[in-house]
Amino acid sequence: MGKAIAFQIGPLTFYWYGIIIATGIFAGFLAAAWQAKRRGENAEHILDILFYALPLSILGARIYYVLFTWEQYKNDPWEALAIWHGGLAIHGAVIAAVMVVIVYTRIHKLSFWHWADICAPSLILGQAIGRWGNFVNQEAFGAPTDLPWAIYIDYAHRPVGYEQYDYFHPTFLYESLWNFAVFFILQVLSAYQVKHRRIVQGGIVLSYFGFYSLGRFFVEGLRLDSLMFGPVRVAQLVSIMLVVISFAYFYYRQKRAA
Asked: Which long-range contacts (CB under 8 A, 24 or more apart) does 211-214 make?
């Protein structure tokens, strides 16, 4: 994964990337457990969901990435398993996490939409914190820029063709700030849902997909390392689809419940 070392204890090396990701996961867990308790639910379900979702989300993120970059792995398929060399896609992780919640709630005879609403704010919080792992790794940055908040990228991390540029758009920062804003929006919507019960079940998670994807669409347009499907940026294509489907289905469910 990352190259920025935080500290070492004997033979063990701890990287900032891993520490930041772990912090995001822990913060997300606390947020979800709090959401469960405020709704009178057993917060132990959150721990159980996390137990399955964490490894499967990493696997999903890797599979998604490899599918769209198969050219670099087809001659050495075993390299596709080398997750420590980097290459994860958040959409793949989210797909895996949603599948875990679907299966878990079916097995335990729980409402998927209810528990998805509980988990959604924690997911975007974890993403907001986790994006700072890109900062320490000097990755997921955007096109060259001379804006005052541009980020300096070491020569070794600059993409081919951009070696002559020093400063780039901090797209990880743009997405992180947007994700924190979405977290705040979801918290407000969730409080309104709990207090007034006028937001249909599923409204929070659908808002998560819609609002997150809206910001991701614009941020992705600045990045230099986008996964591509022909001439199209995969993340932008997925994002615009999620914006339309999520908000449209939210509206449909809301009208149906009225």
From this structure: 211/182, 211/185, 211/186, 212/124, 212/127, 212/178, 212/179, 212/182, 212/242, 213/238, 213/239, 213/240, 213/242, 213/243, 213/246, 214/239, 214/243
Per the rule left: phi > 0, alpha: psi between -120 and 50, beta: everything else, 185 is alpha
Instruction: Name every residue whose Cβ is closer than 8 Å to that of residue 169 and which is 6 or more positions away in sequence.
Output: 141, 142, 143, 144, 145, 147, 150, 151, 222
- Residues 127-153 have pLDDT tens digits of 999 999 999 999 999 999 999 999 999
Tokens matching residue 17: 């990337």
* Per-residue pLDDT tens digits for 242-253: 999 999 999 999
* 138 vs 166: CA distance, rounded Å: 12
Q: Please list the residues that pair with 15 across neighbouring strands.
A: 5
Three-point CA angle 111, 180, 144, nearest 5°: 130
In the block, which residue shows the tokens 């009208």?
255
Segment 153-202, tens digit of pLDDT:
999 999 999 999 999 999 999 999 999 999 999 999 999 999 888 899 99
Amino acid sitting at position 38: R
Please indicate, yes or no, whether the overall pTM of this predicted structure exceeds 0.90.
yes
